[in-house]
Specification:
The protein has a two-stranded antiparallel sheet with strand order 1-2. Helix content is 66%, strand content 4%. The chain has seven helices and two strands; from the N terminus they run ααααββααα. The protein is mainly alpha-helical. It is globular, with a radius of gyration of 18 Å.
Length: 149
Amino acid sequence: MVYRPEISGKTRKGFTESIEDYLEEIYLNYLGSNTGVRITDLAQAMGVTKASATDAVKKMTDRGLVRHERYGRIYLSEAGLETAKEVYDRHVTITKFIRNFLNVSPEIAENDACGIEHIISDETFSAMKATLRKQAIRTMDNHPKSDED
C-alpha cells in the first residue's frame, strides 16, 4: 500500500513539514516571553545554517505566518500562532498517546510524534484525543477525592 496524503487531508493547508517545524519552534520560544526569536537562535534550535533559517523565515513572512524586520526578531502573526498551536497540540497529543498506550520511551515517543504530526489525518488525531480524554476520565474516576481535594 502507498501513503496517499489526499486521503488524510493534510495537504489542504499546503505547509511543508519544515515550515510546521519552524512555526512550532518559534511558538515554543514564544510561550515564555513573547519577545520574539533571533535568526541565530532559530537556526541553532533547528540544526540548520543561518542562511537556511533566513530562507524559511522569508517563506513564512511571505505567507503571513511571521513578522520579521531585517536583523530583528521574528514574531508569529495571528495566522502563524494559530497554525503553531495546532502543530504543537498534535505533537503533544501524539507523544502522550504513544507513551500512555504503547509504553514507548520518552525519547522515541517524541521523535515519532515529530514525524507523525505532519501526516496524521484529522480523523485519526481526533480519535487519539478522545481516547486520551477517556483515559483521563477513567483515571480520575479511579481516584476518589479525599478530604484535602
